[in-house]
C-alpha cells in the first residue's frame, strides 16, 4: 500500500513531465505501477492536477492557450479512467476564480467550443452541476450593463449545454425580475414640442406638420410609470393599480396615435451614412431623461419596444398560468378592455414604419408560440419526444372482407393525487394496491374491526386442554414422557390462554410454583372440577359465577364454530375467485345489464375523457353493449383492473346492485 503523500509527490513529477512532452502514456504507466485501490489513485491524481494548475497560473510565461492545453490533457486522463470526470470543470472553475475578467472572457471561448465534450455521457451527469455553478459564479462577477456580451455568451452556452426540458434553466413558477426597476427623473423644464426641424431642407413631398404633441411632465411621468407594471404584471389584479394602469395606458396610446410616423419622416431623419443606418443598437436599460422623450417617440424601434411590452402584458393577464394565485383573475369589463386595447396596439404597430404589417404578423406568430410554451410549462415541462404516427390498420373479418380498424383510445392512468382525493370524499384510504385497499377499507375504524368477534381466534379452555384432561384421567393413565403438560410449547400457550380465559389464573396463593407441568396439572384438575360444579351447585355465589363463565365459554365456542364455518366458506369463495383470476363473461353480462342506464357516469369515474366516451357511444348501438365494451376495454388496458377495485368504485357511485354482482359468485 502506498501513502497518499507518496503518490502525490510521484504523480506531480510525472504529470509535469507528461504534460511538457505531451505524452499521456507516461502518466498511464505511472498510474498502473501503484498497487492500491483505483479510488485512492484517482484522489491523489486529482489533487496533483489542481496543484500543477496552480504552478501554471503563477508562471508569468503561461498564457490562456497553455491553460487550455492543460485542461485538454486532464480530459484525456479522465477518458483513460485516471481522473474523476468532474476534474476538467473543477480546473476551469479554479482558473476563473483566479483570473481577471479579460482573461476569463478569453478562456470562456474554450468552454463554448467544447460543449460537445461536456455533453458526452462520461462528463454530462458528473459535470452539469459544476458547470452551472461555475457559470453562475461568473455571472455574479459581471455587470449586466458593462459586460452585456459576455453575459449573453454564458447564457447561450448554458442553453446549448442543457437539454431543452432541463428544469434548472426554466422559470417554472413564473417569477418576474422585480429587481429591474426603471428610474426616471423629476425634471420640470417646461413643455416640449415635437416639431420638424425647420433648418433642415425638406423633400418636396414632405409637407409641414402643423400638429403638435404637447409633451409635458404629466405625460412623461405616466409613460415611464408603465414600466413598473411591465416589470410586475401582477399589480394589475389590484383594483386601484388596475385603474392607474388603464388610465396611463390610454393616455400613452393616445399620444402615439396623435403623433404618427411615416416613411417620409424617417427618410427625412435618416443618418448621412447609409451603412450606419443598418446598424442595430441595443441598450440594456432605457434612457429616461425627459428631454430625450421627444426623440424616443420619433424612433420607430422605440415605439415597437413599448407596444410589444403592452402585448406581452396583455397575454399574461389572459393566460391560464399554473402558479397564478386564485385571486389573479380579470373581471368581465377588464377582459373587454384588454381585448379592445390589444386591437388598438396592433393597429398602431401596423401604422409604424417600416414594414408595419409584416412586423405585426411576426409578433402574432411569436406570441402564438408563447402560448404553446405556457401550456407546456403548465403540464409540468414533460420531455419532448417525437410523436408516434399511428396509421389506421386494415384487418380481415370472418367473412374474408377487408375493413378499416381504428385504434381504440387508451385510458390514461389516473394520478395518485386524484385517487386519494376521490377516496377521501368517500372516507376511504388508497393503499396503492387494490387488494390492500380492499382490506384496509373493510371497516371505517380498523381498531374496532380488530376487536370484533370474527377476529377472536383464541380456543376455548375445554378444547385446548381436551387431550391433557384425558391424560389426567386416573382410569386411563398415560406415560409421563407423552403427557402434553410436559411439552414446553404447549405449556407456554396454555399460560397465555389461562390468562385470557380462566378466572383462577390470577387467584392469590401463597404456594410457590415449582414446575410448570405441576401447575398445569393443578389447573386442569380445577377445570375438570369446575365443569360439574358449575352445573350442580348453582346456589353458591362462586358456583353461580363459574356457571356464567361456562355459559359464556359455551356461547363463545358456538360462535367460534360458526366463525370457522364462515371462514371456510369465505376461503372456498376466495379459492373460487382466485380460480377466476379476472372478470368472467358472466360478470360482464350481469354488469352490463345493471349499469346500462349509468354507463357514462361509470366511464367518467374510471377516468375516461369526453372524446373517449364519444368513441364508446358511436362504436355500439345500445347502452348495454356500450357498457359491456367499456368494461372489457377497461379490464384490458388498466393494470390495476380487478373485481374488487370495480366494486369499490361502484360503491362510491352508490350503484349497490351492480356492486353486489361482484361480491356474490355468479352461477355458471
UniProtKB/TrEMBL annotation:
Residues 405-414 have a biased composition (Basic residues). It comes from the Eukaryota. PANTHER family: HPR1, THO COMPLEX SUBUNIT 1. This is Death domain-containing protein. The lineage of its organism: Eukaryota, Metazoa, Ecdysozoa, Arthropoda, Hexapoda. Transmembrane segments: none annotated. GO terms for cellular component: THO complex part of transcription export complex. InterPro entries: DEATH-like_dom_sf, Death_dom, THO_THOC1. PROSITE patterns: DEATH_DOMAIN. One of its GO terms (biological process) is signal transduction. Residues 598-666 form the Death domain. Residues 378-419 are annotated as: Disordered. SMART domains: DEATH (SM00005).
